[in-house]
Amino acid sequence: MAKLLVKQVRSKINCPLTQKRGLEALGLRKMGQVVEHDSNPAILGMINKVKHLVSVVEAK
């Protein structure tokens, strides 16, 4: 399974509550924080909801 590096690049201030909870579910609490996840449909769905707030890179 591929690994994804997810980095929060934009602030969650003034975002809907569902997007804030999506960031927290991904493990992102602060700007610039990077977390690693396996690529699966649940994680990809969460990333899709907050794609304007994060950057995603496939880890090797």
TrEMBL record:
Residues 4-54 form the Large ribosomal subunit protein uL30-like ferredoxin-like fold domain. GO terms for biological process: translation. The lineage of its organism: Bacteria, Pseudomonadati, Bacteroidota, Flavobacteriia, Flavobacteriales. It comes from Flavobacterium luteum. Belongs to the universal ribosomal protein uL30 family. It comes from the Bacteria. One of its GO terms (molecular function) is structural constituent of ribosome. GO terms for cellular component: cytosolic large ribosomal subunit. Keywords: Ribonucleoprotein, Ribosomal protein. Part of the 50S ribosomal subunit. The gene is rpmD. Pfam families: Ribosomal_L30. Transmembrane segments: none annotated. This is Large ribosomal subunit protein uL30.
